Amino acid sequence: MFNSKSLKFLEDLMMSSSPSGYEMEAGKLYRSYLADCCDEVKADVMGNSIAVLNPKAKTRVMLAGHYDEIGFQIVHISDSGLLHFRRNGGIDKLNVPSSEVEILTASGRVPGVIGKKPIHLLKDAERNKALELSDMWIDIGAESKEEAMQLVSVGDPVAMRSNFRFLGNNRFYSKGVDDKIGAFIIAETMKALSKRKLNVAVYGVGTVQEEVGCRGVQTAAYAIDPQIGFALDVGFATDLPDIPKKEYGDVTLGAGPMLTYSCDNNIVLGKFMRKVADARKIPYQNSTSHNATGGTDTAKLQLNRAGVATALISIPNRYMHSQVEICDLRDAEGAVRILTETIAAFKGNETFIPGEDQ
């Protein structure tokens, strides 16, 4: 389904670096990709990117997928030229030591590695516990504080090194798949919808600062004031050892996107979406969120103003919040098809009040 132009956009988006609050690279790519097919493409003061189709329609549908990624920020430069840092988003401390990183400076990317005390010098008790970030540092090869300060500054954001690569015919790994895959799906959906007759207005939003509290979606939703909203994110693939399916469900890479049942998901909209998918024989996996509510843009979108009928579509993801997240293109393709067909099926006069006949 995805053509070479789509796959090139996917690679470029994954190779971009966009820690929370510093999403400019990803935002520029997103807006450029949609500029030729949408009625309007713009950025807002937060850094959200908003692409619009059929803006004069009364019913507004908002799609939200965040393109910020977890990362770090420089807080101190030592006399020896080492960089000390803090987390920016939900960092897994077990994955951090020996990572390759890039400091995003005003002059460009500066490569570095995250160092720690060698295992040979650790006490027995230290070897069996996760290090604190304060026990690590970034080494950029500088020999002094003065040399380091010529390259980087306190406050510079830090991203994991760009590393996109395909694995086999359908799967790929990269840092930042959470949730650039969601922004990619929204962009592909907007491309597809631009060729369809629409009865609703569609706002495809690449959102920012999800990893630090779902902040971008909140301001974008307030401005757009949608009646219907879809959030695109990643979900936990459970086709791995030692992940109990009785707790987290049975979710497999390549078996289709996850359609979620939770408090964040409007019951009527979920039924409508599944009916469309079933009629067109588009595979999907039913899922429940690991929490009753929260964790994605869906929760903030649902609570905008007087309330929004929302649905979360998740792409199964292995090794979430690591430098080597893995997803399957077939799941992304399924998500684009379900979104496209569902939105194209809207007449513009639907109501999504739970318990009322439709």
In short:
Helix content is about 30%, strand content about 25%.
What does this structure look like?
By secondary structure, the protein is an alpha+beta fold. The protein has two domains: 4-69 and 175-345, Zn peptidases (Aminopeptidase, 3-Layer(aba) Sandwich), CATH 3.40.630.10; 71-160, Peptidase M42, domain 2 (Elongation Factor Tu (Ef-tu), domain 3, Beta Barrel). The chain has helices at residues 4-15, 24-34, 124-127, 145-149, 177-193, 215-224, 245-248, 267-279, 297-302, 329-345; strands spanning 40-43, 49-53, 60-66, 71-77, 83-88, 100-105, 108-115, 137-139, 157-160, 165-167, 171-174, 201-207, 228-236, 258-261, 285-288, 309-317, 325-328. It has an eight-stranded mixed sheet with strand order 1-2-12-3-13-16-14-15, with helices on both faces. Strands 5-4-9-6-7-8 form a six-stranded antiparallel sheet. A hairpin with a 2-residue loop joins strand 6 and strand 7. Helix 2 runs parallel beside helix 5 and helix 5 crosses helix 10 (329-345). The chain is globular, with a radius of gyration of 21 Å. The two termini are 33 Å apart.
